[in-house]
Amino acid sequence: xxxxxxxxxxxxxxxxxxxxRPIIRHPNRHVEDRPRRHQYAIDDSWDEKPRKxxxxxxxxxxxxxxxxxxxxxxxxxxxRKWEREGTIPVAIFQVPGKExxxxxxxxxxxxxxxxxxxxxxxxxxxxHERRRSFATTEFKARVLELFKKTT
Length: 151
Description:
The protein is an alpha+beta fold. The chain is 36% helix and 15% strand. Strands 1-2-4-3 form a 4-stranded antiparallel β-sheet. It is elongated, with a radius of gyration of 21 Å. It starts with a helix and ends with a helix.
């Protein structure tokens, strides 16, 4: 059943199912005008403020989980979920959170890792409008190989 059919059915009822809350429609806003859920935009400004740390005597640019998320057009919570599920490897570089901040560590990714993940995601089709499931791609294996090469 399409969204428009469901909306029309709810409109006739006047209330959301199982609720006494009335459905309020704005006269100038149509169903087609509503923002679509999971409509992501890739943000090219993800690398504007890199963190710089010295590793092995070399100053290296690092990017946070939020910056990686912007580069992929996702939310940071999605990246943390992917890490938890093993879709992407655990961030190799980590720093403690701010003093007094109980949230713990900050995940950091190198420029090569961020750019590599974005490239692999595009090549495997997991960022497109009609996204492919991770199970049907080589995304996990390729990102794992990328992380092995970039450490």
